[in-house]
UniProtKB/TrEMBL annotation:
InterPro entries: D-isomer_2-hydroxyacid_DH, D-isomer_2_OHA_DH_cat_dom, D-isomer_DH_CS, D-isomer_DH_NAD-bd, NAD(P)-bd_dom_sf. GO terms for molecular function: glyoxylate reductase (NADPH) activity; hydroxypyruvate reductase [NAD(P)H] activity; NAD binding. Keywords: NAD, Oxidoreductase. It comes from the Bacteria. This is D-glycerate dehydrogenase.
Length: 322
């Protein structure tokens, strides 16, 4: 039987590329620059399986490009860059890689929380610019974490992992907003308070950390009105998706001092970063590093491979979405 033709749109960790190539007829995007929409659309007619990442936009036009692809095995947990309805209409299965990047992403949420609270980015920039004049009692004073309220918007796997780090490691109190209350054992472990409405959480939290999926339902969830409700002097952390935040409103709040700081790993139209943020000292800007450690990136690839393998052998897909 001939091997399935698989297109991998970006370079993956070597071990995963090797494992994939042992079982399938794999085409790699050697250049590792994002493929054009036209090339992605053409691929729909040429391959059996498409393996995209968050940097590809698999919209209805791409999906309409051909009838051969029957599995879109995404390398990543978030899938708001894939038009699930269009895929479903053509009977194309979509899978993702949940679970394996939970710890790595929670680590980046804590990195941003610590960097913003302790003004680490500002300090590093000052030092590198040769502008550090030495230790003094009033230099770059930040905020303590102990006893402060971490407000989680969404309470899925990554939010819980972030809360565990913040609570057990740094003595933070935990509150969360979500559609429903979390597992009572988790709530008890974290002493977590549930807010059924977002504004209640935003009013209480010293640090708000976003953990909701991207897409239409959460677009601009943190808009000017929501930011106005946030506690004066509080902080916003986003490791979820850029579209969840109105960045113009965020920049205004950072400029006026209503918010003390923000830590962002994601942006609405990556790799563009909203210009209004670039000149501000009190924002830490990371280039979508949430899952970027070697163990995690390899595990994500192996998870995507497990989905392709299951599809190839007509088994139940381990991680279907939609
Ligand atoms: C994901 O998996 O959705 C991340 O944003 C990419 O690491």
């Amino acid at each position: 039987m001939s091997k399935l033709k698989v297109l991998v749109t970006r370079r993956w960790p070597e071990a995963v590329e090797r494992a994939l190539a042992e079982e399938f007829d794999v085409t790699l995007n050697e250049s590792d620059v994002p493929m054009s929409q036209q090339a992605l659309a053409a691929a729909m007619a040429e391959y059996d399986v498409l393996c995209p990442t968050v940097s590809d936009r698999i919209d209805a036009d791409v999906i309409a490009g051909g009838d051969r692809v029957k599995l879109i095995a995404n390398y990543g947990v978030g899938f708001d860059h894939i038009d699930l309805a269009a895929a479903k209409a053509k009977n194309i299965a979509v899978t993702n890689t949940p679970g394996v990047l939970t710890d790595a992403t929670a680590d980046i949420a804590m990195t941003l929380l610590l960097m913003t609270a302790r003004r680490a980015g500002e300090g590093e920039r000052e030092l590198r610019a040769g502008e550090w004049s030495g230790w003094r009692p009033t230099h770059l004073i930040g905020s303590a974490l102990k006893g402060k309220v971490l407000g989680l918007v969404g309470m899925g796997r990554i939010a819980i992992a972030t809360a565990r780090r913040a609570h057990h490691g740094f003595g933070m109190r935990v509150a969360y907003y979500g559609r429903r209350e979390c597992d009572p054992a988790v709530a008890q472990e974290l002493g977590a308070t549930f807010h059924p409405d977002l504004n209640g959480l935003l009013r209480e939290a010293d640090f708000v950390s976003l953990h909701v999926p991207g897409g239409g339902e959460t677009a601009n969830l943190i808009d000017a009105d929501a930011i106005a409700v946030m506690k004066p002097g509080s902080y916003l952390i986003n490791t979820a998706r850029g579209g969840v935040v109105d960045h113009e409103a965020l920049a205004d709040a950072l400029r006026s001092g209503h918010l003390a700081g923000a830590g962002l790993d994601v942006y609405p139209a990556e790799p563009q970063v909203p210009a209004a943020l670039l000149g501000l000292e009190n924002v830490v800007l990371l280039p979508h590093l949430g899952s970027a450690n070697s163990e995690t990136r390899e595990a994500m690839g192996m998870c995507a491979l497990a989905n392709v393998r299951a599809y190839a052998s007509d088994k139940e897909l381990p991680n279907p979405v939609g």
